[in-house]
Amino acid sequence: xxxxxxxxxxxxxxxxxxxxxxxxxxxxxxxxxxxxxxxxxxxxxxxxxxxxxxxxxxxxxxxxxxxxxxxxxxxxxxxxxxxxxxxxxxxxxxxxxxxxxxxxxxxxxxxxxxxxxxxxxxxxxxxxxxxxxxxxxxxxxxxxxxxxxxxxxxxxxxxxxxxxxxxxxxxxxxxxx
Length: 177
Description:
The protein is about 30% helix and about 35% strand.
C-alpha cells in the first residue's frame, strides 16, 4: 500500500471536538488489516536500530506501540493517565489547551540506560509526548526517537520534540487543525 492509500484510510471528522477543528480519526485505518499492517511496517522501517522498549501513551498509542514493539522485537512500556497503574509510579504533569493532565509509569518500568522509542497514533502540540519523554528520562533511560502514524504540522508538536533533541518521524501529515 502506498502512503496515499494509507492516507485515504484516515477519516476526517469536521467540527470535532469543537467548530473549526478537523479531527483526524485513525480508527478507520486500524480497522483495515492490510492498511494497519502496512502502516506499522512503514514505521518500523524508519527505526535504524532496535530499541529496548517502545513506549505507548494512553490510549490509541497503546495500539501503535504494541504493534511496533512486536514488529521490532522490543518490550512494551505503557505510559498511562494518572490513577490507572497499580504499585509505585512516577508522574509528569503537562499542559493541555484548557488545563493540565498527568501521565504516569511504574518506577521500575525501564532500567537506567535502556533505549526507548516513543510511539503514538498522532502528534499535535507535542505535550503528551514531551511529558512521556520526561518520565522516561527521569527513570534514567534514553529516548532515541518518536514515531507517529499522523503529524499535524501546523500545531508544531514534531518541531517541539525535535527542539528537545528527540528525532521524530511520522507516516502521514495532515495540514490544518
